[in-house]
């Protein structure tokens, strides 16, 4: 608009100077040319004004799109950071759970090994006591003790039946998983063997247990 104002001012100055030099016909032609030029300028001005407005709108729209893109990029970055934190937390939690599980298994294994060691120690101690008593039993009770399969001991009594001193009376003894004495066989069978077995588990008096079985065999030989 400022340029149009300046142009009109220049045209007026030119018109004043022009009238002083040229005639009426030439003035009319010039006026016509001026009006045509002015009209063209107005059309061109309106056209470019419209284009400038459209350009401004387009710039605003582009800026709006850029802002949206920046906002979305920021949102995506935040989501990615949150996802990474969640994954790290999940991995840490899984690792902690795995570590705790392994520790529990180790503790449970240690307990089982301790229990097995205690049982094994108890079994070995009982077997040692049995072996140490072997000579005493053989001398006093006419007893022979043999170690047979599956870590079992076979007790063989003789000199019970006065009619047949060499006749064997036997029972087989083992130590079960609980560490208790257990009679696995008895020949000839004795009805009281379960009672003797229960009593030795309570008292842990093994010599008395063997003596009671021999007495039961002796009583059986007189029947």
The helix/strand order is: HHEEEEHH
Shape: rod-shaped
Give me the CATH fold name of the domain at 142-222. Copper Amine Oxidase, Chain A, domain 1
**What proportion strand?**
5-15%
Overall structural class, as computed from helix and strand content, comes to alpha+beta
Q: Strand order across the biggest sheet?
A: 1-2-3-4
Based on the structure given, which CATH architecture of the domain at 142-222 is correct?
Answer: 2-Layer Sandwich
- The pLDDT mean sits at 82
List the total number of helices. 4
Give the total of beta strands: 4
Domain Chromosome segregation protein Spc25 C-terminal: 148-217
Keywords: Cell cycle, Cell division, Centromere, Chromosome, Coiled coil, Kinetochore, Mitosis, Nucleus
Subcellular location: Chromosome, Centromere; Nucleus; Chromosome, Centromere, Kinetochore
Family: Belongs to the SPC25 family.
Describe this structure as you would to a colleague.
One of its GO terms (biological process) is cell division. Keywords: Cell cycle, Cell division, Centromere, Chromosome, Coiled coil, Kinetochore, Mitosis, Nucleus. This protein has 223 residues and is an alpha+beta fold. The chain is built from four helices and four strands. 73% of the residues lie in helices and 12% in strands. The protein has a four-stranded antiparallel β-sheet, covered by helices on one side. Among the domains are: 64-137; 142-222, 2-Layer Sandwich (Copper Amine Oxidase, Chain A, domain 1).
